[in-house]
């Protein structure tokens, strides 16, 4: 065939199967398949949970901390000037420097860190002083009231009930993975509350105040739940 | 001599996507890469910029497709939806003649207004935007979704964004290699000889009487 066939011949040829007909729906199918793949992967990765997300993070950098600050730049403090004040309704208010904080007795503890926006960092090895140890050192009540935290960034605040604060896994952490906290991670010290979302753990912590009741902190004012239990708050109520 | 390739609405849509993508990629990188997060700070501002750009391009897409002004864009979508014999030729080796053309070489298959690579790029980019918008919405309303779903959304959002960055990078490289294609999206018009070579089956440049569905190899 050297000449182009006339229009009528083409229609006949297509109908006779001699020419490959134009197929429709190719783009739509590709689009819908890819959207379906994304939706399916979202559900599967979510349902499989830690194992799947850790597997991906071995190959791709998806398992790292995202760095949040509520201020314009990362707060800085020199170790010489930094103090952790423990005040409020306590028998003996404290002003701990870095050495005397760690002198209260440090522990190593492995826990998973969950951000309320959905990312997690698994098997973090924190080192620090149990929060209960710090509260005891100041002679705080073992059951009553609440504990407020403030950051030396001048903006961030958080709070826990005394019962929540005294959970044994809570730390005033100074080290992550055997290294002193990075500046972005809250150097020199941050609060770690493994059973709750990351926003409950004040970075760059400098004040602990024992109060009557838990006042809403920086993110609670902006709509987050006061009781930030992982998997049972902020969009998922267990009861 | 030139022929018209893209109307104003289509070009505005394309370049709005380009600007939106640049903002999204930059702000996304700032939120994802720790060194950039630390250097920039201001996370709330960065997040708001990211979310605003994301929802803006989705809104722009819906507006650009609607109404009488969206006729050209909708016609392009119908083109993307088709696959004919010339497309099959292009996929099975014809793309070499199209993308790496040498003077006097074999002419590329007479594909329509878009070649299969462009069709796949459009379908992938649209799907990626939909997936990113969906997973991004789950993260945006993160006090309204269960944690397991937010975790899946985070992972898929990150991976899809990375894939889209690679695809867009390839799209930009190909556009810069073929200035006439770039001119088409910039001015709306392309050189007729270029169009006849690279899009021989396109209705705007087809010689009268010829059939776009004619396979390049006779049956």
Largest sheet entry of chain B = 2 strands, antiparallel
Q: Which regions of chain B contain 5 or more consecutive residues with pLDDT less than 50?
A: 215-219
Strand content of chain B: under 5%
CATH superfamily grouping of the largest domain in chain A? Oxidoreductase, molybdopterin-binding domain
Summary tags:
heterodimer, A: 239 residues, alpha+beta, Sulfite Oxidase, Chain A, domain 2, 2 domains, five-stranded mixed beta sheet, 23% strand, elongated, disordered N terminus, B: 219 residues, mainly alpha, Fumarate Reductase Cytochrome B subunit, two-stranded antiparallel sheet, 2 strands, 69% helix
In short:
The complex is a heterodimer of chains A (239) and B (219). With 239 residues, chain A is of the alpha+beta class.
How would you describe this protein?
The complex is a heterodimer of chains A (239) and B (219). Chain A is an alpha+beta fold and 239 residues long. Helix content of chain A is 27%, strand content 23%. Chain A has a five-stranded mixed sheet with strand order 2-1-10-5-6. In chain A, strands 3, 4, 7, 8 and 9 form a five-stranded antiparallel sheet that branches. In chain A, strand 5 (146-151) and strand 6 (157-161) form a beta hairpin. The longest helix of chain B is centred in the last third of the chain and has 31 residues, at 147-177. Chain B has a single domain (2-198), classed as Transmembrane di-heme cytochromes, Chain C (Fumarate Reductase Cytochrome B subunit, Up-down Bundle). Helix content of chain B is 69%, strand content 3%. In chain B, helix 1 (8-32) runs antiparallel to helix 3 and helix 6 (116-140) runs antiparallel to helix 7 (147-177). The chains are: A alpha+beta (239), B mainly alpha (219). Chains A and B meet through helix 1 and helix 2 of A and helix 2, helix 6 and helix 7 of B.
List the SSEs and their pairings.
The complex is a heterodimer of chains A (239) and B (219).
Chain A: H1 7-16, H2 26-48, H3 50-59, E1 84-88, E2 94-96, H4 98-103, E3 107-114, E4 120-130, H5 131-138, E5 146-151, E6 157-161, H6 162-165, E7 171-176, E8 179-180, E9 190-192, E10 205-211, H7 218-221
Parallel strand pairs in A: 1-10
Antiparallel strand pairs in A: 1-2, 3-4, 4-7, 5-6, 5-10, 7-8, 7-9
Chain B: E1 2-4, H1 8-32, H2 34-40, H3 43-65, H4 71-80, H5 85-99, H6 116-140, H7 147-177, H8 179-187, E2 189-191, H9 192-198
Helix pairs in contact in B: 1-2, 1-3, 3-6, 6-7
């Amino acid at each position: 065939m050297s000449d182009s066939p006339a229009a009528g011949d083409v229609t006949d040829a297509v109908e006779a199967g001699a020419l490959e007909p134009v197929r429709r729906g190719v783009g739509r199918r590709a689009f819908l398949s890819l959207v379906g793949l994304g939706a399916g992967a979202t559900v599967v990765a979510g349902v499989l949970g830690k194992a799947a997300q850790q597997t991906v993070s071995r190959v791709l950098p998806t398992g790292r901390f995202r760095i949040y600050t509520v201020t314009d730049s990362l707060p800085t403090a020199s170790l010489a000037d930094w103090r952790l004040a423990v005040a409020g309704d306590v028998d003996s208010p404290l002003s701990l420097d870095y050495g005397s904080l760690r002198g209260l007795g440090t522990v190593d503890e492995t826990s998973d860190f969950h951000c309320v926006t959905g990312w997690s960092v698994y098997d973090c090895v924190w080192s620090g002083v149990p929060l209960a140890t710090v509260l005891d050192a100041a002679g705080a009540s073992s059951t009553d009231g609440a504990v407020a935290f403030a950051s030396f960034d001048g903006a961030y605040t958080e709070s826990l009930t005394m019962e929540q604060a005294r959970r044994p896994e809570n730390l005033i952490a100074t080290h992550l993975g055997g290294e002193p906290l990075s500046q972005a991670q809250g150097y020199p010290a941050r609060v770690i509350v493994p059973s709750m979302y990351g926003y409950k753990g004040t970075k760059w912590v400098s004040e602990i105040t024992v109060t009557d009741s838990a006042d809403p902190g920086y993110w609670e004012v902006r709509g987050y739940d006061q009781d930030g239990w992982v998997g049972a708050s902020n969009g998922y109520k267990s009861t | 001599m030139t022929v018209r390739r893209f109307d104003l609405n289509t070009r505005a849509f394309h370049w709005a996507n380009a600007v939106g993508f640049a903002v999204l990629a930059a702000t996304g990188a700032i939120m994802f890469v720790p060194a950039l997060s630390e250097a920039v700070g201001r996370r709330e501002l960065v997040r708001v910029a990211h979310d605003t750009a994301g929802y803006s391009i989705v809104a722009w897409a819906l507006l650009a497709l609607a109404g009488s002004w969206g006729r050209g864009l909708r016609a392009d979508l119908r083109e993307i939806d088709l696959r004919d014999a010339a497309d099959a030729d292009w996929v099975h080796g014809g793309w070499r003649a199209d993308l790496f053309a040498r003077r006097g070489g074999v002419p590329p298959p007479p594909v329509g207004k878009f070649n299969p690579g462009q069709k796949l790029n459009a379908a992938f980019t649209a799907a990626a935007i939909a997936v990113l918008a969906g997973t991004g919405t789950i993260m945006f309303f993160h006090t309204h979704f269960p944690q397991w779903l937010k975790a899946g959304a985070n992972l898929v959002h990150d991976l899809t964004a990375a894939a889209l960055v690679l695809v867009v990078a390839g799209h930009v490289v190909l556009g810069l290699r073929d200035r006439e294609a770039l001119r088409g999206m910039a001015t709306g018009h392309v050189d007729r000889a270029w169009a006849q070579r690279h899009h021989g089956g396109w209705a705007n440049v087809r010689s009268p009487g010829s059939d776009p569905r004619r396979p390049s190899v006779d049956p």
